[in-house]
Amino acid sequence: MTIADESRVPRTLTNAELGVVLAIMAHLVWGGMAVYFGLIRHISPVEIAVNRGLWALPIAIAVVWYLGQWKDVRQALASPRNVAILALTSFLIVFNWGFYVWSIGQGRTLESSLGYFINPLLNVVMGYLFLGERFTTAQKAALALATVAVLVQTVAPVSYTHLRAHETPEH
Q: Quick one: which of 4, 18, 115, 152 has the fewest CB in 10 Å?
């Protein structure tokens, strides 16, 4: 194989590179959803949330089929406890979606999005408290940085509103 031939061989992405590509795509979709929900604010948030929940089912079925995991699904659904947990968490997800869509319709995109930054931090705290998770120095630094970012985003709008309230009108 010559050097010219080697340049034509497509290079596959490493797991880390693929992870970065998928993370960027997820963030673009997530950011675009706020714009999309703003454009369809005339539709009831309940209707949007229920539609998202209902459309998730055929998509989940397609993914299970593609991955060949029907045995795992049957096993999970055989347990009444698992079915109850799945029903409860499904309800909570649909409620969360509805609340997010409603918040955007009310012009509270920043506040509703902030919850999506706070939630993972709370999950980390729960893991630490209840599952015995421990963190490396780099993970602690990342958690500290994320916490500071959430605090800044939480305090900044309040400070800005407070400052704007005390401005004197120009003459």
A: 4
